[in-house]
Write a structure and sequence with these properties.
The chain has 14 helices and six strands. By secondary structure, it is mainly alpha-helical. It has three domains: about 15-105, Fumarase C, Chain B, domain 1 (Orthogonal Bundle), CATH 1.10.275.10; about 110-205 and about 225-360, Fumarase C, Chain A, domain 2; about 365-395, no CATH class. Strand 1 and strand 2 (about 160-165) form a beta hairpin.
């Protein structure tokens, strides 16, 4: 068996390569999740008397064998098979004979894909959440070491008022806490089982979808089969959006530190081992890691736009366009996890140059404070504002 939809007709090889794309490569990440979803489905089929207890056990053992092969890197998915779902069923048929053909009863490749992806996303988001918590802890430790150091705060790229590395660090800690709420909300939306919705219109068999959802650890069943298909791009875009909120913080952190690390500022120092050199200028210590972290946010936003754009103007139900949403989600997850790990490493090793920060604390930074000293003496704020402005002009 080469394809789940194969009816014995040959497919133009150029068309085949175009429609398969790199899905068979991406699906190596989904093999485990499709297997555990298929084990739950076997239990559902057993309860519906569509598999005997012995048949269900044989299929589950076959799926466990596939998982073992996958862990060892020995489970192959060929381009002819298109995806992991076909490769898994082909293995079951090869090892179990006619029994292997029964596992696809009461489901479609459409709800297979959705279920495997939801399970994969769930684990990936748990990893993101774990790294988010670790980053908050690391940033708090950074603030503990350097938070008392003041430096100029800027508006319009001009000196404005005194700031501190406690104020700066906590700005991103609070933002990361909000990012956690967004991540939790998206995780809750994703936490519903589409298994049993088949191609998007259900199946004419009595199956216990709640049983499958519970076995797979989903909070609830996604009831409407059309919505299960319609939610594929919607949920994916929501997931990437929650990731882009984090990478937006990395973008700003990186932009700040690139500025603060310049020789004209030297408020902070990156370890030499974090920097790269120039092929022509011997003196250069380039903050490439920060520049790439800044840029990665735009890649994640591009993934979000890619998914939203791909799923626009589609009629309800499954359309093959949805196949192309898989890669940008996987890409956005990987980028975000990488950035979180790099950010943890960064805050563990970043140093603050207190002397340079103090030298930059010039008198104009205290202009607002001086105006409020006058306010406390009973001078109206607008008069105090003008008085201090004039004194600064005279001093200059």
């Amino acid at each position: 068996m080469s394809k789940l939809w194969d009816k014995g007709l040959a497919l133009n090889q150029q068309i085949e390569a175009f429609t398969v794309g790199n899905d068979y490569l991406l699906d190596q990440s989904l093999v485990y999740y499709d297997c555990i979803a298929s084990k739950a489905h076997a239990s559902v089929l057993e309860k519906a008397a569509l598999l005997s207890p012995d048949e269900a056990q044989q299929i589950k053992q076959g799926l466990d064998d596939i998982i073992a092969l996958q862990i060892k890197g020995e489970f192959e998915i060929t381009s002819e098979q298109e995806d992991c779902h076909t490769a898994i069923e082909a293995y079951l048929i090869e090892t179990l004979g006619e029994l292997g053909k029964k596992i696809h009863t009461a489901r479609s490749r459409n709800d297979q894909v959705l279920t495997a992806q939801r399970l994969y996303y769930r684990d990936q988001l748990k990893e993101v959440e774990s790294l988010r918590v670790k980053l908050i802890e690391t940033m708090a430790q950074f603030v503990e070491r350097f938070g008392q150091i003041s430096y100029p705060g800027y508006t319009h790229m001009q000196k404005a008022m005194p700031s501190s590395f406690a104020m700066w660090g906590w700005a991103f800690i609070e933002s990361m806490e909000d990012n956690g709420m967004l991540l939790a909300t998206v995780s809750k939306i994703l936490d519903q089982s589409p298994l049993g919705t088949a191609a998007g219109y259900g199946v004419p068999l009595e199956i216990d979808r709640e049983m499958a959802a519970q076995e797979l650890g989903f909070a609830r069943v996604q009831q409407n089969p059309i919505y299960a298909q319609n939610s594929r791009g919607k949920f994916d875009a929501l997931l990437i959006h929650s990731l882009s909120a984090m990478t937006a913080d990395f973008n700003k952190i990186a932009s700040d530190l690139i500025l603060f690390n310049m020789s004209e500022f030297k408020f902070v120092k990156l370890p030499d081992e974090f920097c790269t050199g120039s092929s022509i200028m011997p003196q250069k210590k380039n903050p490439d890691v920060l520049e790439l972290m800044r840029a990665k946010h735009h890649l994640v936003k591009a993934c979000e736009f890619e998914v939203s754009s791909l799923t626009g103007n589609l009629i309800s139900g499954y359309n093959r366009d949805l196949q192309l949403t898989k890669e940008p989600v996987m890409k956005a997850l990987k980028i975000t996890q990488d950035c979180l790990e790099i950010a943890v490493l960064l805050f563990q090793n970043l140093e603050v140059n207190e002397d340079r920060c103090q030298k930059a604390m010039s008198p104009e930074l205290y202009a607002t404070e001086r105006a409020y000293d006058l306010v406390r003496q009973g001078v109206p704020f607008r008069d105090a504002y003008i008085q201090i402005a004039h004194s600064l002009e005279e001093d200059s």
